[in-house]
Amino acid sequence: MSKEIFVVGAGAWGVALAHAAATGGCSVTLCGRDQAVVDTINNSNVNPQYPKLAQVDDKVQAQLGYDGIDGVKTILMVVPAQVTRQVILDIGVDRLAGKNIVLCAKGLEQGTLKRQSEIVRELAQDAVPFSLSGPSFAIDVAQSKPTAVTLAGPSMDQAREMVDLLAGPTFRPYSSDDLVGVELAGALKNIYALGAGAVEGAGLGYSARSSLIARGFAEMGRLVEALGGSAATLNGLAGLGDLTMSCTARESRNYEFGYRLGAGETVQQILDSGAKLAEGVFSTPVGFNLAHQNGVDVPIIGAVNALLDGKVTIDVLVSKLMARPLRSE
Ligand SMILES: NC(=O)C1=CN([C@@H]2O[C@H](COP(=O)(O)OP(=O)(O)OC[C@H]3O[C@@H](n4cnc5c(N)ncnc54)[C@H](OP(=O)(O)O)[C@@H]3O)[C@@H](O)[C@H]2O)C=CC1
Ligand SMILES: O=C(CO)COP(=O)(O)O
Fold first, then answer.
1. Domain stop point among 143, 177, 211
2. Structural domain range at position 98
């Protein structure tokens, strides 16, 4: 496969992935939409998000817009899940025919309830979707710290080819053919991260937080299977790996958002304070609707959804969860 790739989206994760792919030998064009960001990367090889902490490999060339995209086979899509559709339309669906699109956002689209690959399949039928997910903070990848992720494609052979292309000395993708399971794992873990953060923010203790993680893992398995993914996928990096990291680290934006909710702030107050992107805020009602449509019982997603709605307090939600009928594990 050609070693030339495009990365669309020059935010925290886009710049980190561009750097990782370049250190693995790819020649990378990074598409941003802010001239200052593009100039900083090109002129000083510095990651504007972490100027003192992370250098960007010099095989990354940043630019505004999508010039040159026609000549490359592989595109990493690294914009927030809710704008992926718009960005595909901005690039132009005809230009994506036959290309590999590696979807790196961890979210479900509001309104359509679609996974990222379903958006690609709807708009650009001839493109080949992949999903990259797993425990990976942008700052770690940007600093070339060791990171392992799951990379799913439509078949194992296609996934392996993509793994070979993107692997590097400190970035180790594992191949999977469970596109549905990997995409859902990445989106759903953000919902549980909000819940786990809220538990800590409300001072409910680590016992409660671990219970949420374990029962969330079981709930996630039920939902993933009902939606056509494999529960076995959840035993890997995209499932357990990312769930445990995002449900325990204040560095997770979703966890931090949940922490602030649990501590008493409202969604609006947190958003107004300029909080960083927390995809779970958008994916929670989608996950809840998908579960409802498919008859899957998801008490924890339901509780996080109600908390985001702001109509109930975390104390009431926890009392309700504790009062559910006793059952076996
Ligand atoms: N950060 C992380 O550690 C990780 C993030 N992810 C996932 O990656 C995705 C992106 O996250 P992250 O990079 O952190 O988010 P950021 O907010 O840091 O970056 C998002 C980027 O997308 C750009 N963007 C937003 N809207 C548009 C648009 N309509 N057209 C073109 N570009 C647009 C933004 O540009 P501008 O700044 O100009 O608004 C920004 O460069 C999320 O789904 C997240 O869950 C996955 C793993 C790790
Ligand atoms: O997905 C991530 C780590 O794998 C990043 O998590 P947050 O978006 O919650 O910061």
1. 177
2. 4-177
- Residues 217-273 pLDDT 10s: 999 999 999 999 999 999 999 999 999 999 999 999 999 999 999 999 999 999 999
Was 11 annotated as part of a binding site?
no
Token pair belonging to 327: 């059952």
Mean pLDDT, the chain, as a whole number? 97
The rounded distance, in Å, linking the Cα atoms of 209 and 188 is 16
pLDDT in tens, 204-225: 999 999 999 999 999 999 999 9
Q: What is the CATH number of the domain that holds 28?
A: 3.40.50.720
Say what percent of the chain tops pLDDT 90.
Answer: 97
pLDDT at 311 over 90: no
Q: Whose CA is nearest to atom 5 of ligand 1?
A: 13
Q: Which helix (H) or strand (E) holds 192?
A: helix 179-201
CB atoms within 10 A of CB 273: 9
Ligand 2 interacting residues, C-beta cut-off 6 A: 106, 135-137, 190, 193, 242, 245-246, 252-254, 279
Ligand 1 mutation pick, 33, 50, 283, max ligand atoms within 8 A of CB:
33
Amino acid (1-letter code) at residue 62: A
pLDDT tens digits for range 20-68:
999 999 999 999 999 999 999 999 999 999 999 999 999 999 999 999 9
Q: 3-state SS string over 260-312?
A: HHHCCCCHHHHHHCCCCCCCHHHHHHHHHHHHHHCCCCCHHHHHHHHHHHCCC
Q: Look at residue 189 and tell me if it is in a domain.
A: yes
